[in-house]
Amino acid sequence: MIELPEAVVLSNQCNYWLKGRKVDFVVVNSKPHKFAWYIDEGRHYQKLLEGKSFSYSTNIAGYLCLYFEDVQAIFHDGVNLRFIETEAVHHNHQLLIRFTDHSQLIATVAMYGGLYVTEKGVIPTPYMNMSIENMNCLNPDFTYSYFISKASDNMSIKAFLATQQRFPGIGNGVIQDVCFYAGLHPKTKIKDCSESELRHLYEKLVSTVREMIALGGRDNEKDLMDHPGEYKVLMSNAQLKNPCTKCSGSILKENYMGGSIYFCPRCQPMKKA
Ligand SMILES: [Zn+2]
Q1: Ligand 1: distance of its center to the CA of 253 in Å?
Q2: pLDDT, tens digit (0-9, with 9 covering 90-100), for 42-68
Q3: Ligand 1 centroid to 124 CA: how many Å?
Q4: 4-131: what fold?
Q5: In 3-state terms, what secondary structure has residue 112?
Q6: What is the pTM of this model?
Q7: What separation in Å is there between the alpha carbon of 235 and the centre of ligand 1?
């Protein structure tokens, strides 16, 4: 999944690799995918993009935004984006952007994901609008008082951090390590945390996301060149077989709020007032 760290890393890489390239042609949905989301089923993507030169790339929280003159291509959620410099033929993709020098950008969707090509400046989904309205945790003005103003007593830590785009670009992937470093169980309610625990959570959110970016993303996600990031994720499916790095106990997995949570029951005890 593209979360905030991956969106930043991918955007930097696109600025480097796509510079000076011009779109030759576009192929939309060559392998139909039920949960690949397009604007108007991608009917206008060719007309919009073909002949346009890459201008620059940026991210709006967890949305990767590529600009081609007056057109934008926005990628979100479970889109895997790869750049290849050769003209090797690929068929199984949800969007292919081929450049005049035969290099290509290939987007595939894992479980679900958005690939939105529109005129520049359009906000393709209401969900993205929420990402724009809320401050992301890399902003210098993202203070503890802003962070805690988004909380309410009965929310769990997971609901607080990862839903409603309160913290744009932060999803269920990134928060697992944040909760671990903060020593908080993802199901613990805000009202059962002390102020110092919530301050610690705030600090770990900011520092963990920054570290993920500095290390080129998480090691369970791949970058534009198909390389995994160097940030070692501690709380994930792949780590279930390994002991907790703090106490050597077992890491547990549970389903909670439509996704898996990973935690160490000793280092992240469930708190109840
Ligand atoms: Zn532990």
Answers
A1: 13
A2: 999 999 999 999 999 999 999 999 999
A3: 42
A4: N-terminal domain of MutM-like DNA repair proteins (3.20.190)
A5: strand
A6: 0.95
A7: 11
Q: What tens digit of pLDDT does each residue of 188-238 get?
A: 999 999 999 999 999 999 999 999 999 999 999 999 999 999 999 999 999
Longest dimension (CA), the chain: 63
Ion ligand 1 — residues with CB < 5 Å: 244, 246-247, 249, 264, 266-267
Which pLDDT score, from 0 to 100, does residue 273 have? 65
The domain limits of the chain are 4-131, 135-263
Which residues share a beta bridge with 106?
Answer: 82, 96
Q: How many CA atoms lie within 13 A of 193 on its CB side?
A: 29
For residue 160, which of 126, 113, 192 has the smallest C-alpha distance? 192
Looking at the domain covering 135-263, what would its CATH class be?
A: mainly alpha
CA of 129 to the centre of ligand 1 (A): 38
